[in-house]
Amino acid sequence: MNQVPTEELRTEIKNLIMETLGITGIRPEDIDNGKPLFSGENVLTLDSVDALEIIMAIQRKYNLRIADQNLARQVIGSINSIADFLVSEQEKKL
Amino acid sequence: MIIGNYHHKMAAHCESGSITSLLNHAGMKITEPMVFGISSGIFFAYFHKMKSFAFPTFIVRNKPGQMRKNLEKRTGVKFYSKDFKTPEAGQTALDLLISKGVPTAVQVDMFYLDYVPSWERVHINVHFLVVIGKEGDVYKVSDSYFPNPVDLPVSSMNKARFAQGSMSPKGFIFYPEFVPRSFDYEKAIRRGIKKACFYMLNLPIPFLGIKGIRMFAKKINDWPSLARDTEHLSHEVMKINILLEDQGTGGAGFRFMYATFLQQASEIIGNPGLKDMARELMEIGDGWRELSLFAARIGKNRDLGPEKFRQLSTLLYGRADKEEEFFKRLSKTIK
Questions:
Q1: Stated pTM of the model
Q2: Structural domains of chain A ordered from first start
Q3: CA gap B264, B297 in Å, rounded
Q4: Which of A49, A65, A72 is nearest residue B297 as measured by Cβ atoms?
Q5: Of A73, B15, B193, B274, which sits with the fewest C-beta atoms within 10 Å of its C-beta?
């Protein structure tokens, strides 16, 4: 991966997650980019159903498919891992 | 000791992943989707009332062990396999193989795997992993669901290999004892696809294949009357998502992995029609994923009125129709 994810992309991802899950009362900047999204360490506490909702929202918005759930699990680990994945997918399309 | 040149790799599914990894180690160049496709791994069966299950359930792949048997028939590979009566005998055999440098797949109950985070540990008696070494009282393990090799104490491994209950592992081990230098890929692919089409379309049993998806679609409306209470019903409905997405299926109940197999097969045997079929199956898989999410959502929200079950039923009938059409055309594509 040569390109580095931008802060705009990270914010876009955070907004997508909050819109998808109907989360209010949290600002994008409250969500830590590096902390896991599913372990209770971040401001968001998500579960496996949320994970599937997020995967499908990412697939729809960025027109890609995350078929393998092991990959999916790694991708949606944190905001940074989602951003890295999207950048690498964009590079593949170039 | 650790078996030095063993290459750990993540995989979509534990059994096909372990088989692929062992075959690759033994020198056979084959991918996980190819192992799954050649061995006709794709399937569907719905069990409404069976003694072994407390509540109706379904499977989306052929039964454990069938992949190895089909692979043997179609590629010439021979697997050594054995189960054991006691943990002592099981451990002695495993340790001997490791000391000889033979990476060995073992069947385990996932609950006893210390390296699995506690919130993910459930009793699943048919998880497969590959033992690739031993240092003191600790096994070195290649578990295809994890990014790197992991450690497992001998005591935990013995508990995991000799857990009780339905489909108990009985210390089961397997490894390839013969791998041919080459095999007829085209023939193996054709046989694998034909058999999968037969399993999905022609088995004369009402709960297997496409008929099984339709039975599921019909019987799911009875689920509320079979559950003890809302909590139980919610748990069972959410299990639809787990069985389709979470238990190492490669996504959408193995449909994505089978699509990848068709894509690879298209190139190997020079049949562009298979590539179109792969694309179509990916779309069918998306439908399964939508269904899975719908089930997870209504289960999580305890939104379990009759209308929701009718919607689930409609979604299932939709998958049955699509898959029937798909496998009929796949069968013609491969002729």
A1: 0.89
A2: 7-93 (1.10.1200.10)
A3: 34
A4: A49
A5: A73
